[in-house]
Amino acid sequence: MSAPTPPDGLPAHLTFGQVHASDGHRDNAAVSVEWVLKRNCSLSPLQLLAVYASVCVISLGIATYFWVHGATLVMPFAWAEVLVFGAALLFYARHAADRECIALQSGRLTVEHQHGGRFDRAEFVSEWVRIEPQGDDRSLIELSGQGRDIAVGRYVRPELRRALAEEFRTALRQWPSGR
Q: Domain 17-39+98-174, what fold?
């Protein structure tokens, strides 16, 4: 299966995004560009659970040994350690799936931002979108238009945000209508 050919000079390889093409009606293919920006998580949820379980078994096992031999204050501290560590891992797991998904399709720019349990969505007409840094060149990228704005680029290193903004501008300039 070959990679889709983007229309009107849109680069076939984007640094941050992907070009998707599907067969449409007639001779035109519906083409979209999608950027998925997410956290770099080193542990899957299953691996995280395994690490937590092993820490609990080891810590409570050692505390039980000392408790049986008369050091009764070790057990409450071991439980406190396990609970605090569990709370920290729960916080990590809650934000492990944080992401931003920006899609340009059929003249619409859709931005979805998931942070913890919160989900934000903004949709813009692609010809009216302005792309600017919020402050300096290393700040978040602000997408605005039609009286709304949303900041993106949280999960991209600050020194790469300028390149991401330029990639957005190029895609919007070369492919405003989605065809």
A: PH-domain like (2.30.29)
